Amino acid sequence: MRNAFLLAAIGAVMISGCSTTNQQANAKVEKTENMTSEQLIGEWGCLTTYPAHDLRTYDRMDIKRDGIFTNLSDTYYPIMNDPEHSLFSYTRYLTGSWVLDDNKITYLILTQGKIWRQEFKNSPLWKKIKEEKREESVRWIDKIIYKILSEPPSQGESITLSIKVSTSNVFTYKQISGDNTYDGHCGRI
Asked: Are 178 and 5 in contact (CB under 8 A)?
């Protein structure tokens, strides 16, 4: 899986990033045992953090009743509380199919649009990177991330999210990639 390769390739050369904080909703909501396909239909904003690799993704998913999804996916490096304080972002448009089975959502990626890379030149992190003489290694990591995310999806490439808790408007999940487990959450948009 390309995402697993990305995470493994970058893991050995990562710079340390700022830790993230989890935000919790103040509203009381009724939890459900298992999410249904009907509950999953609609537009979602999903955030997944990969702390061991200093990456965070934000996905704007449109999950359609006919089993098709579209996704505008942003990947940020490194993890910062304010995405524009990250050094780089990579945006790509994905399409594919989805299936919900046994409280697990599997997305089969079929197409990917051209990747758009942005460097946040005004990020306060650049000053620290330059003072510590790490700019060359950071730019090397940027090139690796860009190259891997630019590759077209391989046939059968999929992502599976195991739903932990769900309501009609929010769900939390874990994503297993290789030996690593990552937590994320989605909210209706």
From this structure: no
φ/ψ region of 156 (left if φ > 0, alpha if ψ in -120 to 50, else beta) reads left
pTM, two decimal places: 0.81
Nearest Cα to Cα of residue 78 among 57, 55, 58, 59: 55
pLDDT at 19 over 50: no
Buried/exposed code over 96-105 (b: 16+ C-beta within 10 A; e: otherwise): bebebeebeb
Nearby residues of 126 by Cβ (< 8 Å), 6 or more positions away: 87
Please tell me the distance from the alpha carbon of residue 103 to that of residue 105, in angstroms, as a whole number: 7
The amino acid that residue 11 corresponds to is G
Tokens of 112: 């990917």
How far apart, in whole angstroms, are the C-alpha atoms of residue 142 and residue 19?
20
Residue 53 pLDDT level (bands cut at 50, 70, 90): confident
Cα–Cα distance for residue pair 176/178, rounded to 1 Å: 6
3-state secondary structure of 185: strand
Residue entry with tokens 């299936």: 99
Concatenated DSSP letters for 19-70?
Answer: --------S----BSS--HHHH-EEEEEEEEEGGGTEEEEEEEEE-TTSEEE
Residue 138 structure tokens? 């950071």
